[in-house]
Design a protein that fits this description.
With 362 residues, the chain is α+β, with helices and mostly antiparallel strands. It has two domains: 249 residues, Mannose-Binding Protein A, Chain A (Roll); 110 residues, Mannose-Binding Protein A, Chain A (Roll), CATH 3.10.100.10. It is 17% helix and 30% strand. Strands 14, 15, 16, 17, 18, 19 and 20 form a seven-stranded mixed β-sheet that branches. It has a four-stranded antiparallel β-sheet with strand order 10-3-11-12, with helices on one face. A four-stranded antiparallel β-sheet has the order 4-9-5-6, with helices on one face. A hairpin with a 4-residue loop joins β7 and β8.
Length: 362
């Protein structure tokens, strides 16, 4: 291990959100991955999606006492394009904001597949093998030498994650830290794969065990959590029967009612009108609203005249937002809705209009 290089790549956030959009349910019946998927979709929402370490700890807690391997909702789509991700929760890879070195990334026809990203001292990026040998990596307050899966796991468990995203990889403190190292390049939180979540979520969170090889395919096309290995994941043949974890999340209610009636319905029959606090929540909800019978659906946004601001019905202020261009004007009698097509952005609508709506179950 090298001397620690302390970084402060993430300024304190003025808005901390702890809302959870779903709950996990361990099912002790033995089923194949596809059978488990059908079971979860019929009785709950879907097989479990995991977006961050907090989710993973909740999943383990809900499965307390079980030492079995259980299917989760991640499956290898071998015919899909390998997609680049940042490993840090909530940071989306943007093809228009990249800093690849000349000739990178590559698509080798022979030799080791290069599925993980490194960053050079000049802040340019390249693809690299994930675990052929150990390389230095950067968390938020230290650098060590480990293979990429080990490095990502170490950072997510002990800090937040590997350095991720355009702004973080161009932070002046990162430049200073890299200049102090003898290595030419270090692992960053950049990787690509063909794994996809059952519910369509684009969550980039991965917690593979140390035996999983990100540079090889077809070792098993479905993912499971191994509870006696701290919940870390491994892959297996999808036809094997084992327990599984579902999640209960949001529900689209295809009734056309005004905002207040939608609010009371959700509180009487579920939990509340849905609160959206990050891009993962947004993606989950926009998949649901595609099946709506109205142009808009009510979500849990309302305008508070006294405080001249928009809030969620959960009493949280709006930190993450997806308003249409320019955002909403602050008008009395207006509440928030989501477009059911297009970009699925948020709009203000008169609360006496009648739309479908989204309830949260948790």
């Amino acid at each position: 291990k090298t001397d620690h290089t302390h970084l402060s790549l993430f300024p304190a956030q003025s808005c901390v959100i702890t809302c959870q959009l779903h709950e996990y349910l361990y099912v002790g019946e033995n089923k194949s991955w596809s059978e488990a998927q059908r079971y979860c979709r019929d009785r709950h929402t879907d097989l479990a999606t995991v977006s961050n370490m907090a989710d993973m700890k909740r999943l383990i807690r809900e499965s307390s006492g079980n030492r079995n391997e259980a299917w989760i909702g991640l499956r290898d789509q071998t015919d899909a394009n390998r997609t680049w991700h940042w490993s840090l929760h909530g940071v989306e890879f943007n093809d228009s904001q990249t800093n690849w070195r000349s000739g990178a990334p590559t698509e080798r026809q022979t030799g080791p597949v290069q599925s993980c990203g490194v960053i050079y001292k000049d802040l340019t990026w390249s693809d690299h093998t994930c675990d052929k040998w150990s390389k230095t990596f950067v968390c938020y307050d230290g650098d060590f030498k480990l293979k990429w899966p080990e490095a990502q796991r170490y950072c997510s468990e002990n800090h937040t994650d590997l350095v991720s995203g355009w702004h973080q990889t161009h932070d002046p403190e990162l430049t200073t830290a890299l200049a102090s190292l003898t290595e030419e390049r270090v692992y960053a939180g950049l990787f690509r794969d063909t794994w996809r979540w059952s519910d369509g979520s684009r969550s980039s969170f991965r917690l593979w065990n140390l035996q999983f090889n990100m540079d090889k395919y077809n070792t098993g096309q479905c993912a499971m959590a191994v509870f006696d290995d701290g919940g870390r994941w491994k892959s297996d043949n999808c036809s094997v029967s084992r327990p599984f974890v579902c999640y209960d999340g949001e529900s689209l209610i295809q009734r056309n009612i005004i905002y207040k009636e939608a609010l009371f319905y959700c509180r009487d029959h579920h939990h509340d009108l849905v609160t959206i606090t990050n891009t993962d929540d947004q993606r989950l909800i926009q998949e649901k609203v595609k099946n709506a019978s109205t142009t808009f659906v009510w979500i849990g946004l309302y305008y508070c005249f006294i405080q001249n601001s928009w809030f969620w019905v959960s009493d949280q202020i709006v930190c993450y937002d997806n308003w249409v261009s320019g955002g909403p004007e602050n008008d009395c009698g207006m509440s928030g809705a989501m477009q059911t097509d297009g970009q699925h952005q948020w709009v203000k609508r008169n609360e006496t209009e009648e739309f479908n709506f989204i309830c949260s179950k948790f």
